[in-house]
Write a sequence for this structure.
């Protein structure tokens, strides 16, 4: 296992978005304060559990499509979150055993469980970097990244349910551009992002809950999410509600329950 820093003390004085997400997915790696905050969200938006599951399912499908149809063999997954099997490298390596995956997150709880992310196939490679998406240069400069990824070959940048935690004041589009700029032609962006488009009043309440808990959020419209793909060639069906992006079966959830814009673009 490779990690960039020793684990820091885990802050349990306030809820954390990664641990709340773990609760939504039915995981066990969260604390009472996270449970209470997540249940507060669920009280105003019961669809949050569907949203979390569909976000995870989108990641699986997008990873398989990029591996099978576009020759991607390398992934940079930023905002990894707490490990929930199957993790991205397990999905990728089930298609291409030689796949290489770098995970990055700034949550010390993720670092604590990073060993679960490291169990690569013998043909492939995985590593974990403790880094913050708000400082993309430090992530790109991490020696662990260079040890695992060859930036002269295509890389899929995976940003799942991450960018709504980056407000406009933090320059989200500039961050994504900076990460994509170092990747060669044939690389990809796979992104999912919660949206208020289908139920603005409910999502304003969700916004207030996160902001009041000390986690700034900015949920965006389809138009604003599509901006992340400027300059890329969007794969069909374009920017779509999560459960409608190349589903494995007929969708049963409503768009309002999912409230998640997703897309995959290829760098020309």
């Amino acid at each position: 296992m490779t990690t960039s820093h020793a684990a820091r003390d885990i802050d349990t004085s306030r809820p954390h978005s990664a641990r709340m997400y773990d609760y939504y997915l039915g995981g066990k790696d969260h604390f009472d304060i996270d449970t209470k905050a997540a249940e507060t969200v669920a009280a105003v938006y019961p669809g949050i559990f569907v949203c979390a599951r569909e976000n995870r399912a989108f990641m699986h499908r997008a990873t398989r499509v990029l591996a099978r149809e576009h020759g991607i063999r390398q992934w940079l997954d930023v905002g990894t979150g707490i490990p929930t099997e199957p993790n991205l490298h397990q999905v990728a390596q089930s298609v291409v055993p030689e796949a290489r995956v770098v995970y990055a997150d700034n949550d010390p709880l993720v670092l604590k469980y990073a060993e679960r992310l490291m169990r690569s196939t013998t043909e492939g490679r995985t590593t974990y970097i403790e880094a913050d998406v708000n400082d993309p240069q430090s992530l790109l400069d991490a020696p662990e990244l260079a040890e695992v990824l060859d930036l002269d070959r295509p890389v899929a940048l995976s940003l799942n349910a991450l960018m709504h935690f980056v407000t406009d004041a933090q320059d989200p589009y500039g961050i994504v551009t900076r990460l994509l700029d170092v990747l060669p032609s044939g690389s990809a962006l796979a992104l999912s992002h919660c949206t208020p488009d289908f139920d603005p009043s409910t999502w304003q309440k969700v916004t207030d809950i996160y902001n009041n808990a000390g986690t700034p959020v900015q949920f965006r419209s389809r138009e604003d999410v599509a901006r992340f793909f400027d300059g890329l060639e969007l794969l069909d069906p374009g920017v779509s509600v999560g459960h409608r992006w190349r589903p494995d079966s007929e969708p049963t959830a409503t768009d309002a329950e999912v409230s998640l814009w997703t897309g995959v673009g290829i760098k020309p």
Summary: Confidence is low (pLDDT under 50) at residues 1-8.
